[in-house]
Amino acid sequence: MGSSQQSGSFGDPQQISSDNVNGLCLAISSSLFIGSSFIIKKKGLQKAAASGLRAGSGGYSYLMEPLWWAGMITMIVGEIANFAAYAFAPAVLVTPLGALSIIISAALAHMILGEKLHIFGIVGCVLCVVGSTTIVLHAPQERQIESVKELWDLATEPAFLLYATLVIVAVVVIIVQYAPKYGQTHIIAYVGVCSLVGSIGVMSVQALGIALKLTFSGTNQLLYPQTWIFAVVVVTCVLTQMNYLNKALDTFNTALVSPIYYVTFTSLTIVASVIMFKDWNGQTATQIITELCGFVTILSGTFLLHKTKDLVEVSSPTAFMRYPKYDGGGGSSEEGTPLKHRESMR
């Protein structure tokens, strides 16, 4: 069975497989495209808001804005690279590398959007890189899958079905009850939907990617209905994420959306992957603890990046965690600055 090889750490040069290397390179390039797309889409949303109803208020005028579509295409390219990465490497390795997109979006937001990045924010970015590197060096090897039926068996085990059910219930509750009331003032409403749906989406993306890889290798998996079920789940999750991510970007500061989205999305994806693919099976306690320490380092970095925004918002230390950029009457205020009349917000 070759258990010694399966349980080897990614950090051991003797255990690095070509699949993991390919997945690593694809994940890094994906972060470059996705990090840039946040800024391009944000510029498009700002232009669209000047002539129509904002996305954060339920408008879709951004669909007529070429700049938003440029950002969307950039994100699609990044997502394609990310999709391919999951076909080669486990989610525990690929997903944490999204921290690179935080650094890129924060730096570009500072230079292009004028969203200030404090020196401690730079330290937070460095912590994200250190944490990601730690996880990569101790990530498990990709699970060997021979058929999409194996993936279906994993997805229909009681533990993962329970997780999926809890996610669906939580998403419905947030969309129906929480988001309409608090979406404009609490970022976790929109980002929470993106992250919860995304964790299921990543599992389906990984399953679909593996199925396509097997198909291109000569074992046709398109004949199985399970492949198409995974494809439908992927499309549904992507459309939902796109909608609520647009709302989050249009309502809150980009340098705030990116790290919070990364933390929640990565946390839930790792949980989903551990449940479905049993990524930690065969790993030693030391390897698992080291991976968790790496993830805590990333959390520390994103928390620091978030809190340092308070240092540049002199008017209120909690301003852009709780207040949107525009008032309910269509006027606007500085990003992160609390509105004088909170009653005007719905």
TrEMBL record:
It comes from the Eukaryota. It holds the Pfam family Mg_trans_NIPA. One of its GO terms (cellular component) is plasma membrane. The keyword Nucleotide-binding does not apply. The chain crosses the membrane at residues 20-40, 83-107, 119-140, 160-180, 187-211, 223-244, 256-276. One of its GO terms (biological process) is magnesium ion transport. It is a multi-pass membrane protein. GO terms for molecular function: magnesium ion transmembrane transporter activity. Keywords: Cell membrane, Endosome, Ion transport, Magnesium, Membrane, Transmembrane, Transmembrane helix, Transport. The keyword Acetylation does not apply. It is found in: Cell membrane; Early endosome; Membrane. InterPro entries: EmrE-like, Mg_trans_NIPA. Residues 325-346 are annotated as: Disordered. Residues 337-346 have a biased composition (Basic and acidic residues). Acts as a Mg(2+) transporter. Can also transport other divalent cations such as Fe(2+), Sr(2+), Ba(2+), Mn(2+) and Co(2+) but to a much less extent than Mg(2+). Homodimer. Belongs to the NIPA (TC 2.A.7) family. This is Probable magnesium transporter. It comes from Solanum lycopersicum (Tomato).
